[in-house]
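Thread: quick sanity check before group meeting

JM: Hey all, I'm pulling together slides for Thursday and realized we never actually wrote out the predicted structure for the chain we discussed last week. Dropping the sequence here so it's in one place. If anyone has concerns about the input, flag it before I start.
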Amino acid sequence: MLIGAACSQAQAQTSVTIYGRVDAGVDYQSSVALKDANGNLTGQTGSKLAASGNQWGTSMIGFKGTEDLGGGLSAFFLLESGFDATKGTTNGSALFNRRSYVGLNGSAGSIKFGKNLFIVNDIWYLDPTGQQFMGTASLVKGRNWPGANNVIEYQTPTWSGFNATAQTSLGEQAGSTKNGRSDGISLVYTNGGLELRGIYDVIRDTNGRYTDVYSASKDLIVGGTYTIDALKLYAGYENISAPDTAAPTDPDKLNHYWIGVNYTLTPALTLIGGAFHAKLNHDAGSASLFMVGTNYNLSKRTLLYTAIGTVRNKGNANFGTEFDNPLPGHAQNGGYAGISHTF
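JM (edit): ok, ran it. Output follows.
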C-alpha cells in the first residue's frame, strides 16, 4: 500500500507536454552563383524564388516532461525533432535531430545528458534577429548554430545576476579524448535591463585539430543587450580561429562584429534592424550584411514575419544573405516573409 501511494503521488507530480512550431513562407535571393552539372561555378548568376521553411525559426515537434522527486529535486526530459514544413521532410536522419536529453534539476543547478544544441547557440540572446537566416550566422556560414551529440551539460543556479553553463560533447573515439570532441562555456550577467554574455567554445575535427574556421575551430563571443522601455539594443563581437588550417592561403581567423535594435512599436508589432561585418585574414576578403525586418503577432501563437537584407562582399569573400552564395566579391540581396505558428 505504501508503494502504491508513493507511485500515485509521483504520478500526480509528473507533467508531460507536446509542443511544436510550424514555420513556412516565401524566399528570394538575387545574384546566386550558378554551377554546372559537376558542381563547378560557371561564372554566371541568377535570381532564386523559393518556398521557405525555417527562415524565422525551425519548424519542430517535441515532447518534454518533469517529475518532482521531492526535497527540491526534479527530473526532466526533452525530445525534439526539426523538419521542413514546405516539403514535410526532417532536418537530418536522426529521429530526434535537434535535442534528446534527460537530467536532474535542484538547488545546486541542473545537469543533463544526451543530444542538445551546442553551447554557441547561446548567441541567440545577442542576435537582434533571434537567429533568423539573416543574422549572426550569415557571415560565419552557420558556425554558431550547430548541434552536439553525446553531451554532458551543467548549469549553475543564478547568484546575484550571474549564471554559467558548461558543456562537453564527447568524441567517443578509442585512444583519444580530443578527437571529435567539442567543449564550451557560457557566462551571463543580468541587472535590470542590462544583460552581458560571454561564450567560448571549441569544435575539433575527427583528428582533434582545428582545421576550418567554419566547422572545426575555436570561437570567442562577447556582447550584451540593453532594454529601455520599448527599445532593445544589441552589440556583439566574435573571434573564430583555426590554427591547424592546412593551406597557408586559406583563412584561419575571422573577426565578426554586429549591432542591432528591436523596437516594440505596438503590442503586436516589433521592428528589427541589424548591421553585421566580418573580416577574414590571408586576403580572403570581408563582408557586411545590413537587414531590417518585422514581427507581427496575430495572437500569442501565430506570427507574421518579414526580413530583407543585402550583403556586400569584398575581395574573395562570397557570403550570402542565406544558404545560396554569390560569386566572390559580388553583392547579394534577399528577403523572406512567412507565418510561424506555435502549439
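AS: nice. Residues 1-10 have pLDDT under 50 and may be disordered. The domain at 16-342 is CATH 2.40.160.10 (Porin).
JM: adding both to the slides.
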